Give the backbone structure.
Amino acid sequence: MATKHRELPSWVVLVGLVVLCQLAGVTGALVTDAGFYRELTRPSWAPPGWLFGPVWVALYTLMGVAAWLVWRTGPGSDRRHALVAFGVQLALNAAWTPVFFGLRSIGGGLIVIAALDLAILATIILFGRKSQRAAWMLVPYAAWVGFATALNARLWQLNS
């Protein structure tokens, strides 16, 4: 006897995706050593530490909503590929903080964030095939991570 597949209510998926994205930030916050960052020689254009939290909360929320918009497009290989790419970039995002702060590895962080840049770009492209709105919602995230990549590179230069 075949069972009918029941999909979760849309709002449950939305909340779940936003929470999942926020958890990527929370796990990073658990290993962040602000003292390590304050000890580094930083460029004059480095933003103040207090700015990172609010920016990431907003970006993680946008990311979750963007993934939900893609999920809502219905099953298919394009959606699956887009959401797998999203998962890869989210894993890289969550990995950067433990590498940079936990291991105190500026160079290792640079490698992770460079891979993250590429994964975000791939996700935007794949999201764009399913939902232009979802793809555009990731642009601020790509811009912020691009800026963070430049900052990470400069920190590596100044502190190596």
